[in-house]
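Example 9 (inverse folding). The structure is encoded as follows.
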């Protein structure tokens, strides 16, 4: 009997331990599942920040409506600690008004950027694009956990504080399109070893002598945007080959500067990594830009508005991943090379050069074309229904001011639906092109100076229901019933 009693006590003890263990597990699981609310100090900082803002569209209306600031618009918290780690105030886009782009500041600071941000000591992501402010406060450099800082289009003036160099964890930095005073040095960039994305577009760097060295000190830089910065550069060869890793840069925009061909050897170090390269509106002067043909991973290349001379390099025709190519407004001559390998190209602009030949007859090979501009050249050849047969995706076509011959039947129905058609000075006449009646999406039409005669009536333009711009001047047309 005693043995049986002992066995029962052992069993009861084992069962008790199991129940306690199960309850403890459930309790711990509940602790894990419970969402921690935001810290009171950080909540009060956010409310003070709201008081310092003019919020015209009431985008922060949720702020203060609940005790948990983690549920407020634009606020993200760490589920384990409750600390605010991300703050997105606004990302209002530019709005079109009276044919000009104007910034619609629906949110702005009453005074300087509010110091309560300092209470958000665990902030890693701060986005406040299109939030109007006066300047970047030096205390931003104290937010040591910041990895993402976006303050573009904020109407900021003053200087870019060198204290930003204290943000050693920063991966993304966008200060573009502001009104900073002329920057004298970018040496603070060298203290941001983790930086992958840098956008200082429309910042006056014309007085900066160390911008190139600063960029070269960022080993993991992936995206570089320095458009419209007043940059000029004359580099001696030793500076090209620093400790910089040439395997990372994939997206470069150095457009609208005063750069010359002296920077090209540095760019060619990224032949294997570059995907997007924009160099338009510079001062490049080079006999033949053939070295760009070695950038085997390029998807977009913009060399427009420069002074490139000579023929279009045949090597460009081998860039099999290229989707967009803009060589317009240069001094390129000769025939367009074979582009049959550019099977993915959707945008091609060769306008305003001195190109000749009958390349247009083989245009059907580029079946993904959506945008084609070859205007203002000396091209010839016959444009037939066969040459346009595969261009089913075409929406923009400008072939003005060339010497093409048209072989299109009166009842031809194009395989595309254009939105823009510019055929100025193309000798389309003598009759009005009836195939235009099939184009129901055209909003911009220019067929001026084409020696067309006869009568144009409402019937001719019956299906052009989206037309907003029409130029049929310098023809011999009469308006009929």
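The amino acid assigned to each position is listed next.
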């Amino acid at each position: 009997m005693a043995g049986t009693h002992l066995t029962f006590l052992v069993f009861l003890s084992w069962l008790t331990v199991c129940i306690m263990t199960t309850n403890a597990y459930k309790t711990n699981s509940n602790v894990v599942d419970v969402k921690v609310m935001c810290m009171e100090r950080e909540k009060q900082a956010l409310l003070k920040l709201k008081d310092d803002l003019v919020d015209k569209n009431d985008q922060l209306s949720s702020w203060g409506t609940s005790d948990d600031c983690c549920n407020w618009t634009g606020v993200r918290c760490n589920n384990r600690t409750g600390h605010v780690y991300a703050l997105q105030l606004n990302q209002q886009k530019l709005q079109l008004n009276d044919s000009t782009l104007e910034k619609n500041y629906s949110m702005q600071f009453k005074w300087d950027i509010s110091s309560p941000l300092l209470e958000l000591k665990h902030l890693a992501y701060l986005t406040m694009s299109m939030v109007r402010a006066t300047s970047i406060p030096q205390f931003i450099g104290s937010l040591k956990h910041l990895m993402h800082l976006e303050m573009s289009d904020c109407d900021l003036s003053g200087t870019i504080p060198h204290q930003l160099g204290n943000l050693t964890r920063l991966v993304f930095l966008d200060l573009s399109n502001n009104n900073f005073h002329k920057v004298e040095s970018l040496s603070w960039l060298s203290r941001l070893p983790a930086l992958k994305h840098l956008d200082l577009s429309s910042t006056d760097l014309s007085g900066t002598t160390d911008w190139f060295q600063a960029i070269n000190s960022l080993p993991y830089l992936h995206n570089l945007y320095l458009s419209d910065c007043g940059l000029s550069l004359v580099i001696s060869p030793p500076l090209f080959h620093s400790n910089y890793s040439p395997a990372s840069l994939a997206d470069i925009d150095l457009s609208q500067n005063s750069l010359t061909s002296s920077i090209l050897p540095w760019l060619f170090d990224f032949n294997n990594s570059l995907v997007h390269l924009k160099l338009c509106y510079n001062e490049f002067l080079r006999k033949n830009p053939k070295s760009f043909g070695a950038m085997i991973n390029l998807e977009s290349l913009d060399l427009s508005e420069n002074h490139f001379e000579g023929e279009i390099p045949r090597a460009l025709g081998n860039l099999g991943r290229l989707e967009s190519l803009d060589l317009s407004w240069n001094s390129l001559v000769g025939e367009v090379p074979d582009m049959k390998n550019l099977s993915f190209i959707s945008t091609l602009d060769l306008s305003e050069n001195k190109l000749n030949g009958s390349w247009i007859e083989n245009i059907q090979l580029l079946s993904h074309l959506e945008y084609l501009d070859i205007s203002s050249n000396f091209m010839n050849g016959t444009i037939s229904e066969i040459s346009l047969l595969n261009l089913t995706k075409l929406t923009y076509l400008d072939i003005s001011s060339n010497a093409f011959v048209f072989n299109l039947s009166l009842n031809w129905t194009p395989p595309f639906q254009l939105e823009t058609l510019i055929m100025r000075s193309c000798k389309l006449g003598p009759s009005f092109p009836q195939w235009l009646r099939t184009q129901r999406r055209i909003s911009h039409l220019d067929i001026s100076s084409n020696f067309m005669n006869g009568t144009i009536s409402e019937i001719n333009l019956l299906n052009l229901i989206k037309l907003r711009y029409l130029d049929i001047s310098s023809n011999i047309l009469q308006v009929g019933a």
